[in-house]
Amino acid sequence: MALRGLWLALFIGASIPAAASAQTPPPDALKPYVTDGAFDPGDFGWMAGRFADEGSTARAAWDSIKAYDKACFAAATVKAKAALAAIDAEAEMLPPGPYGDALCRAVSAAANLDVASEIERAALPARLAEARQLWNFAVRGGRMGLSIAVSAVEPPKSEDARTLIGATFREQLARHMLSWGAEEGDPRLPAELRPLFDYLTWAMIATEDRRNRKMLRGYIAEKGWPTISAVGKEASHAAWLLAQHADEDPALQVEALRLMEPLAKTGEASKSDYAYLYDRVMLKLTGKQRYATQFGACEAGHAVRPLLPMAQDDPVLIDAARTEMELGPLADYRKSMDETFGACGGD
After folding, report:
1. Average pLDDT by consecutive 10-residue portion of the chain (347 residues)?
2. CB–CB of 4/183 below 8 Å?
3. Labelling 193: which of 33, 255, 261, 285 has CA 20 to 30 A away?
4. Which of 134, 139, 197 is nearest to 173 (CA)?
5. In the record, which residues are listed under signal peptide (predicted)?
6. Taking the model in full, what pTM does it have?
7. Of 2, 49, 319, nearest to 152 (Cα)?
8. What are the domain boundaries of the chain?
9. Cα dist. 82→92, 243, 309, 323, 347 in Å?
């Protein structure tokens, strides 16, 4: 979708939601900030111990929060691995993550904000309020743009197609908010507010992804994978996008991949969509990808953005695999990635 920074304003003024109960109970230091399973960072007083002396009460409280962060990731990862094992999918290389524990994710996101001193910590409530004002402004502008965009799009012809395509609007428009400031007409976002602006945005992304995972899992259980002939190319692509972003439910991603595989061979699912999902899933489960669709961050010594690990590194074989899945040459894809995200500087 070409529109950027456009999404529903359901989250404005709200605390970070946690639809699912935490697998690991939060420590006492966090309980005043958790209401009905939702975490609100409030005055950020729970973070004061981050800069306190060892042995102090405040430092002990902070240590309990960091211990919770580690424990809830571990518990969620064990649960995700069990779900993968139940469908005979590899799971040993699955990296630690909150995997559906919304409270764990919300606390971790706040606890890992880049704060260098107690002075900066004390300034967080005011900065978050200021960031939220700018964020709300972006949302209001987005709603206006969304109305224009939706009016220009031909409505899907079936209820299933409307459901699938509609779900991608919210999560895609939220993700585009992460690039706020990249376009000439965007109001300036002060550097000190950027982390908090992104914090609010990622919270909404997590909310939308969680809602979409529940919807997609229910859809698949009832109707199977939405094929091109059944719902149309755009809606089938939308279902893939929801699966691609269902990272907190790896078992759902594996199930989607398995359903798409035979359909991609018959033209009932996009081959390129299948390739992207395959690489995303296999990187998590095996540490390798096949079609070179997934790129990593810049690293020293690379003139261009590096690939994440490949099952094999022969450029000829990679391009042959990409061609089979209707993907362009790797060199062209690498160039487009560098144009979009910026080329890496070599040593």
Report:
1. 27 35 82 95 96 94 97 97 96 94 97 95 96 84 50 68 92 84 78 94 94 97 97 96 98 98 98 98 94 87 83 89 96 90 74
2. yes
3. 33
4. 139
5. 1-20
6. 0.87
7. 2
8. 31-286, 291-347
9. 10, 19, 25, 35, 43
Structure token pair of residue 347:
């040593």
- The CA-based angle 256-208-36, given to 5 degrees, is 120
- Tens-place pLDDT, residues 83-132: 999 999 988 899 999 999 999 999 999 999 999 999 999 999 999 999 99
Instruction: Check if the beta carbon of residue 80 is closer than 8 Å to that of residue 91.
Output: yes
CA dihedral over 303, 308, 311, 317, signed as positive or negative: negative
Q: How far apart are CA 211 and CA 79, in angstroms?
A: 19
Largest Cα separation within the chain, whole Å, is 65
Closest listed residue to residue 261, CA positions, set 246, 275, 282, 279: 275
Contact status, residue 93 vs residue 284, Cβ threshold 8 Å: yes
Angle at 170 between CA 39 and CA 100, to 5 degrees: 40
Burial of 18 (0-12, 13-18, 19+ CB in 10 A): buried
- CA 313, 319, 325: angle at the middle one, nearest 5? 120
Evaluate whether 303 touches 346 at the Cβ level (below 8 Å).
yes
